[in-house]
ubiquitinyl hydrolase 1 (Pieris brassicae), 616 residues
Amino acid sequence: MNHEVQEEPKTSSNRESQLDLFSLIGGSWPPAPRAPERQYGTVPRTPKKTPQYAHERVKSVNLLNHIVPDRRKKPVLNSASSSNFYTKMVHDTKKIETGVLVDVGGNGIPEELYDTPSLGSPRSIPQWQGRQSPIHLQDDIGVGSLVEVATDVNQHYYGVVRWIGIIDDTATAGVELEQNVCGLGDGIRNGQRLFPCAPGRALFVPLALCRRDARFRDTPPPERHLHNDEHFDQPDCPVVPGVVPPLNSLGDLAGKNRGIQGHHNSCYLDATLFAMFTFTSVFDALLYRPPEHEDSPHYSEVQRVLREEIVNPLRRHGYVRADRVMKLRTLLERLSDVPGLTSEEKDPEEFLNGLVAQLLRAEPFLKLSSGQESYCYQLFVEKDEHVTLPSVQQLLEQSFATSGVKLSEVPAAFIIQMPRFGKNYKLYQRVLPSPLLDVTDLIEGLPRQCAVCGSLARWECSACVAGGALDTGALCSSCLRLAHATRPTHKATPLTICEEYANILESCPVPRVYMELFAVLCIETSHYVAFVKTGVAHDAPWCFFDSMADRKGERNGYNIPEIIEIEELAGWVSDEGGRALHASAPHDRLLPGHAKRLLADAYMCFYRSPDVAMYR
């Protein structure tokens, strides 16, 4: 690659010559043999005349033709330094990370660092065993860094550094861009795959031309001014790589400074993450799914932060500091279309939409017979004035009967939103979370029991349900004739039955399919808390989690999360115990504190099917 420096003619003012880095890089990067005169995709334009450049420039529609260095750091050459510029340009970036941070800057750094590879041969940079560099830049770039590359037509391209090495004696970064660009490859250079990505997203540029993605630099971390104060006593929160299984008991997790620390309206996210990952593995596929070509270039970083900085520390050490959560919130704020995730009050479904649906691209938890898919199910029902304490089972069956849809398959996780809107309006003042959810009659194609005689049902009549339980509409052929003899307006539809198993099901009880309640999110005056079952056993105890249970300090203080064991909760959610508690306390103020939050403030219930989760 020829590096010719054009210098302006000396003037009477003896001003220094300015170097145009575009002329050094050439029409594309990495350097390629020059084509005679004509270059693909070039469009001649009128050059902008500025005092810094004395020559004309041809701008191209090709991205590679417009990559330029940061204009704030244009090198100024004199006659003595121009011959050494190329080496200095290569050494502009002070630290490179290829598994570890190594210093490749000048100022005494040995030349052997580059290992003098053959021309055009990409090679990874070996770890430098010398002394640590005294220079530490804010823009340190390493593998996994979120970066931007500027062009001379005021465009910015964003992506993730996937590879760092030496190409043509120059420290080079392989960047996977956020979007496809015509003319770019898929991470292969000179027949060697340096990193995998979708076609049209692999960009190889000098490392010095990469800058930290400015979109992620303007959100400050939580205030931690007390770090140097003698009273600062927050637990440590190290990054935990690898695989950490969920907890199977409460153990010593109860107490203050346990769970996820809240900060700046983060309770919606804290409570949701605590419910989803602390004591259950039903959502663990989100933590370990390998990236695919359709994923965002930031997918691996979002997944890593969620797994290694939040879920794993929570399971191993029982505590996640607020700045770890803020890192995830910042990524969600920048990469999803849900605004305000770093500062505003939000609801759990908005967080699930941004993280699970958009960034992690998880398979929807619910698949409906209508062809629709969803991550959670909102209950839409008409209020029955004669009912004062409906159960989730009753509301769910009523909602499905009204909508006329079924589930296409048994879900591994079933997230149900209560019939309330915002923090103020509630259709029912109290709702009883059902500890076991019978979904047999909600699944399309699942064998059902006749509501009259108990044999295998062959027909279903929605009119016979009449707002009651769904199982009342399932009838065998004999009972259908008897029931509809006096109901001429009722129309029944046949049920889909696998004839292979029909003879067996005719002679034995039809099996029921249940899902288990394992978490309830509650909201009161815009603040979310969680009740979570501390294990998979049927009689496992429950705990209460509040990410902002207490606070230390005022303006520069911090929140203290707390976990409390609730021994009575299993009795509260049972049908007999819940209704007895409801009858004994007609006003919310008469209920025990935690019972009031559970029955009167329930916002979202989480159910799981461990048998189904094993296969997904």
